[in-house]
Structures are given as structure tokens and as C-alpha cells.
Recover the amino acids of this structure.
RNA sequence: GGCCCCAUCGUCUAGUCCGGUCCAGGACGCCAGGUUCUCAUCCUGGAAACAGGGGUUCGAAUCCCCUUGGGGUCACCA
């Protein structure tokens, strides 16, 4: 018989998008399993959806989370099936331990709860939420630590017959676990043994009044039944783990009678914002509110903002007053005020033009490092998924919380973009545009043909964009000059005055001369090098200098003083557009 | 507040397990130069950390203790 598989799992609750911290947890679990596969072992990465909160869970969220994972390249062996764009399917239940949605496993949890009750390790409890809340308040008022106090009629190991009968008759109740009275030890591969003194654990709820298991209970049952051997998750779960260990010691499998095993635990450090606060989607609302408030000090009103955003005044006013954090309002305000909301969820990064391989690389560095140095003794910190799988180990997970440094992420993303082949960049940018900026995509199609990445001019544009864009979205901003119609761009008056009209219109004169020389170039000769050579020639012959010529032409064809190199700028536009723009400038900017 | 976890440049970290090669290395950011037709890119250089105090030791960033600081968690949410 082959060795049983080594199984890691990521178990998100489908109540929103995939958080960047969740992505890191998933990544480490994936890397561990993938590393075992490299060694020829049966390592498996599993996904389970923890949807026991009926009110907050949704199928759309579950699907979104799976798609974001797949986009990052974090693919699972076991779990819900997802069909990729390529037609390939990830997930599935080849081990036969599903279903992977906890809401579909309620019967199993109930069977285990009943077994626990019959063996005197759990009991129905009838206190109402209100009662409990009152007790909690009283404890806080008396400055006592609140713990649920075990009713006096219970004896560990004895079936609570009276309570059971009340419960069976339909009396509303929860089921509580009868916590052990001895020390609980959580063996953790990152932190070492964590010991909890006797009496620290109270009798916590394992089944809610609605019949659904609590998180703690479902996790313990599922991890055992699904063969999970390694639980790697964020440190925020550490304090819960003693409960899990305590339950594992009390539970036995209904099918084989074997006691539950305690998996290997590895709790990883948390990820925070640069200011030390938790990274939360609320940050987006905060940022939008701040921008909106700045705008109101400059004269905007809730009504004017609402109008500009196409929203009702009520929600906007409420948002400004921090009565709610509606994301749609935050995003509309951000769009209008041209501020970028902080990226918190994978989807945010994706939409803003970060590369998946950069994100996985960067988050892998938060709480883990390979410890390897390159030939010059520098830390190896740029790597791909393959490297991660090969070098990941639990031993090298750190213990200290990390802050999410957006500047460094941006730098990594910028480097990755710079390092792309021209053609690769063009096609990735194009597909990003199609997905996230459809309007710009159709403009690109108009300007560069039906298959833009195949257009030499678009590839040329891409080459010019790469060093100027840290994200695919920034590339769009840098490309605007080429996407606007030949007669549709505005002239920056200051730039016109300085570079065209100044010194008695010398700039305009240079534009005229450039236009003449450019007109002599054949279509096939309209390359960055040829165009640049012409500009340089004129710069020399006229004695004006390259700066004067370039800036004059630049302002003439783009309206502003900033664009890629002058040769590239004109070549990307092409001969016809360049001449049309030059002519337009000559008409529009005469003194 | 109880319980638990953590502690190297502003940030991510190497070095800590197996004290000496560390007056602590790298990356991002920052500062100063340089290249350049603008903006970027690129190149060179620089400032920048072992939280504090006690031990142990010939010797401590590395081991022990205390203090301080940070964080997590205390739900019929996961």
C-alpha cells in the first residue's frame, strides 16, 4: 500500500474577494505540496469552502476566490472544480473525500456531534444569546475574565440524558464541547510548542442553533476526514488552535473507530499595512472618504460629488459622514477624483495591472525567505513559482509580522514589465486592456488594427512604454498620446509658449523644417532610428540643439512636453498621423 | 484586562538553531552625483538597524532572565 498523501489545504470562507493575506496562505500551502511533488512524493494541495455562515456566504464569492487563485497560478489538486480559460479543469475529488463545501456536509458534523454527546464529551446547552450577553457584560463590569461556566449537572464522560431529551423534543439549543481540564499543547512547526494552562478553555459552541457547525468543529472534522496532514495558516488562528487540539483528542472516526490525529501546524506571521493597521477592505472606503473630504474643502459638496459620480446625494452624504462604507460609492468617488484606492484583494491588484507572477513572488517574501544568495552575495528575492516550490520549507517561515510595502511591490512589478520581451508585453497589455479597460481596448484596435499585438507599431509602442510603466494601468496612461485622435489632443499652453512660440517662434520654425524633412521619408523608413536621425541632423544644422528640436516636435504631436523618445514617439504614430499632427500644430499654434 | 505570540536599517529581510569569519550583508524607498531631447530608464556613491537593562562567556545580534514595545485572540464569524 502506498504511503498516504501529504495534504495541505486552504479553506476560505466565501464572503468576499480573496484577500492578499489569504493568497499568501494559499501560496505557502501550495508551495509545500508542490515541493513534495518535486521529490516524487504524493503532496496534495486542497481547497475547501467554509460556507457555514449562511447569511454571509455566496456562490459568487466562492467562484471569485477560485478564479483569483487560478489567475495567480495557485492550482489545487483537490477541491471544487474550476474550468480555466484554456479549457483545462483544476480541482476535483480524485481521493473521494468531498464534498468540499461545508454546507453540504452538515449531516456528517451532526453525526459527530451526537457521538460526542453520547460519549459525554459534548452537551446541548439552552442558554439564549441574550442571557449569555448579560453574563458577559456583568463579567466585564466586575473586571472578571468572562468564560462560559459549565452547568453543574454535567459530568465529563457521562451521557447527559436529560439535556439530550429536551434537545430531541425540539427545544432550541446549541451544542457545547466539554473542554478538558488539563493543559493543552499545540505543537507548531514555526513557533514551537504553545502551551495553554488548564482552565483556559471554556465549553465553546460546536453547533449553532441553526444546526450548522461552528468553524472550529467543522474544521476539525473535515481536516481529519479529508486527510489533511499539514495546517498552515495565519497566526490569527493560533489562539483557536488549542480548541482544535482538544477536540481532536476527544474525537474518534465513526467509520474506523480510529482516534483523530493532530496535524502538523505552522502558523505564519500576519501582514499589515505600512502604518501597522490591518489590511482591510475598509481601507478603500477610508481612502475614498479622505479624497472626497479634501475635495469638499475645495468647494465640492455631497450633491456636486454625487452628480459627478452619477449617484444619489443621500448615499454620498452618508458615505462622507462615515455612516457606511459602501464600496460602490467609494469606487465611484475614486474614479471621479482620480485617486487610486489601496489594493487589498487580489482582484484589486489584478485590475490595476499587477502581474500575477510578481504578486506571488512578492507575497512569498512576506514571512518567508529562501536564505539564498546570488553570485554577488545578494539575497535571492526575484523568483518564480517553480523556484518557490523547489525551495519552500516550513523551517524558513519567519515569526515576525510583516508590513505590506506597496513601493517595493511596485518596483518589482516595474522590473518585471521592463524585463518582458517586446512582443510578450504587447500581448499581455492587450489582453489586460480587453479584460479591464474595454473602451481603451477598442481605441487600440482602431489605432493598431484588429490584432494589435501583431502590429509592429504597437510592439514599438510597448517597447517605449515598458520603462515608463510600473503597472499595465500606468502603461495605458503613458500610451494616451498614441490613442487620441490626430485632431483631438489638447495643447498645453505653457508648453506651447515655451517650446513653440518662445524666442520669436523658433520652435514653430523647427517644426516646419522637421515636417519637410519627414515628408521625404518613405513609409518603410519611418522608424525610430530614421526619425531620430532627421531630428538630430536638423538640431545640428540649425544650431538649435536636440533639446529644442525634440521638445518643439513633441509638443506639436502630443500637445505636451512629456512622451517617449522623439524617434519612438513619431514612429509609433506613423508617418500619416505625424504629418497630420504637425500640420495641425502649425495651424493652431501660430503666434 | 486574561491568555498567547513576536522583537536586526523607514520597510521586506540575511545572519540567531550549531556564540568568534558581523565596527552586521542584500533589496525597496530616501539622499547626492552621472548618462540623456522631455518624462522615465540606466549607472555610481551615500546615510540608515541588532528596543533597553541585567546575566552566562575569553568573546553575544546570536544563549538565559527582566523591562519596554508591537501584535493576535477572547462570538451561536470564519
Amino acid at each position: 500500500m502506498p504511503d498516504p498523501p501529504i495534504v495541505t489545504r486552504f479553506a476560505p470562507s466565501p464572503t468576499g474577494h480573496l484577500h492578499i493575506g489569504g493568497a499568501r496562505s494559499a501560496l505557502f500551502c501550495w508551495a509545500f505540496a508542490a515541493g513534495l511533488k518535486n521529490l516524487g512524493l504524493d503532496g496534495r494541495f486542497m481547497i475547501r469552502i467554509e460556507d457555514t455562515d449562511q447569511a454571509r456566504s455566496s456562490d459568487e464569492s466562492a467562484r471569485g476566490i477560485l478564479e483569483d487563485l487560478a489567475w495567480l497560478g495557485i492550482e489545487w489538486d483537490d477541491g471544487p472544480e474550476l474550468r480555466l480559460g484554456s479549457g483545462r479543469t483544476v480541482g476535483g475529488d480524485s481521493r473521494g473525500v468531498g464534498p468540499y463545501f461545508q454546507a453540504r456536509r452538515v449531516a456528517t458534523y451532526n453525526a459527530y456531534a451526537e457521538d460526542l454527546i453520547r460519549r459525554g464529551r459534548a452537551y446541548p446547552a439552552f442558554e439564549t444569546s441574550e442571557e449569555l450577553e448579560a453574563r458577559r457584560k456583568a463579567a466585564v463590569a466586575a473586571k472578571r475574565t468572562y468564560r462560559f461556566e459549565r452547568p453543574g449537572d454535567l459530568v465529563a464522560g457521562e451521557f447527559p440524558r436529560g439535556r439530550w431529551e429536551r434537545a430531541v423534543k425540539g427545544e432550541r439549543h446549541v451544542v457545547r464541547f466539554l473542554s478538558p481540564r488539563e493543559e493543552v499543547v499545540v505543537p507548531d512547526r514555526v513557533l514551537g510548542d504553545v502551551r495553554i494552562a488548564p482552565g483556559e478553555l471554556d465549553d465553546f459552541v460546536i453547533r449553532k442553533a441553526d444546526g450548522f457547525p461552528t468553524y472550529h468543529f467543522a474544521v476539525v472534522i473535515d481536516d481529519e476526514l479529508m486527510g489533511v496532514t499539514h495546517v498552515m495558516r495565519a497566526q490569527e488562528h493560533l489562539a483557536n488552535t488549542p480548541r482544535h487540539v482538544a477536540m481532536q483528542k476527544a474525537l474518534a472516526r465513526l467509520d474506523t473507530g480510529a482516534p483523530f490525529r493532530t496535524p502538523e501546524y505552522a502558523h505564519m506571521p500576519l501582514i499589515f499595512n505600512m502604518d501597522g493597521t490591518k489590511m482591510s477592505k475598509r481601507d478603500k472606503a477610508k481612502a475614498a472618504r479622505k479624497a472626497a473630504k479634501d475635495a469638499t474643502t475645495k468647494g465640492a459638496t455631497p450633491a456636486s460629488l454625487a452628480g459627478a459620480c452619477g449617484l444619489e446625494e443621500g448615499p454620498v452624504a452618508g458615505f462622507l459622514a462615515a455612516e457606511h462604507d459602501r464600496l460602490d460609492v467609494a469606487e465611484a468617488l475614486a474614479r471621479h477624483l482620480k485617486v487610486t484606492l489601496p489594493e487589498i484583494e487580489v482582484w484589486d491588484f489584478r485590475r490595476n495591472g499587477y502581474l500575477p507572477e510578481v504578486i506571488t513572488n512578492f507575497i512569498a517574501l512576506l514571512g518567508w525567505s529562501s536564505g539564498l544568495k546570488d553570485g554577488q552575495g545578494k539575497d535571492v528575492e526575484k523568483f518564480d513559482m517553480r523556484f518557490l516550490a523547489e525551495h519552500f520549507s516550513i523551517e524558513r517561515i519567519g515569526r515576525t509580522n510583516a508590513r505590506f510595502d506597496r513601493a517595493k511591490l511596485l518596483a518589482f512589478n516595474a522590473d518585471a514589465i521592463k524585463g518582458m520581451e517586446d512582443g510578450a508585453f504587447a500581448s499581455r497589455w492587450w489582453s489586460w486592456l480587453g479584460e479591464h479597460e474595454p473602451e481603451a481596448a477598442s481605441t487600440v484596435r482602431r489605432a493598431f488594427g484588429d490584432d494589435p499585438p501583431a502590429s509592429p507599431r504597437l510592439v514599438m509602442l510597448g517597447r517605449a512604454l515598458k520603462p515608463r510603466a510600473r503597472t499595465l494601468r500606468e502603461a495605458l496612461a503613458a500610451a494616451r498620446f498614441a490613442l487620441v485622435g490626430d485632431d483631438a489632443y489638447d495643447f498645453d499652453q505653457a508648453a506651447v509658449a515655451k517650446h513653440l512660440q518662445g524666442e520669436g517662434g523658433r520652435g514653430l520654425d523647427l517644426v516646419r523644417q522637421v515636417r519637410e524633412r519627414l515628408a521625404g521619408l518613405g513609409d518603410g523608413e519611418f522608424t525610430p532610428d530614421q526619425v531620430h536621425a532627421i531630428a538630430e541632423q536638423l538640431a545640428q544644422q540649425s544650431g538649435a540643439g536636440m533639446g529644442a528640436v525634440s521638445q518643439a516636435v513633441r509638443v506639436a504631436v502630443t500637445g505636451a512636453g512629456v512622451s517617449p523618445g522623439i524617434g519612438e514617439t513619431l514612429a509609433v504614430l506613423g508617418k500619416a498621423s505625424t504629418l497630420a499632427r504637425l500640420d495641425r500644430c502649425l495651424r493652431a499654434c501660430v503666434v
Notes: The first strand of chain A starts at residue 6 and ends at 10. The longest helix of chain A spans residues 493-519. The mean pLDDT of chain A is 94. The two ends of chain A are 90 Å apart (CA to CA).
